[in-house]
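Look over this one:
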Amino acid sequence: MKRNVRLLVLLPVIMLWTQAFACNYHTAVVAEHDFTSAIKAFQQAETNEFQAGNIDASTHQAMEQGILSVAEGGQQLAALLQKNASKQSVINEILLVDTALANLNANGVLYVKTPTTQRNLAIAFTAMHDILANFSTLYGTTLPVTITVTGGAL
């Protein structure tokens, strides 16, 4: 009888603990999906601006390479989540993606001369950076890279 009572008391504690883990995992998965959507939005905006003649071919190529790096990092992040990888592994990948974002900014977005085009790309870029920052907070870390586009910190 005592054993059943102990089990009955322990069961809600176990359920609450597993629910807390499930909520954090779910939040991380949602953030990863949002990040993927932001990458696609940036890529679509960049392609549209290139096709409209607002971005030269060399800048377009640099941004395509940069967004590919960010996307590959996002895929690695998704794979780590699916494998239920360690917190440190996820944090390391977040930091690599942050570096890829900084490189994309420095080698692409800052070289766009048309103000409207740069603003459109900055909006999509900011979304990617903010989602990654929120994701890093979920894992108990902050992004070390401060990213600026045309004089304003993102």
In short: Residues 1-23, 150-154 have pLDDT under 50 and may be disordered. The first strand starts at residue 148 and ends at 149.
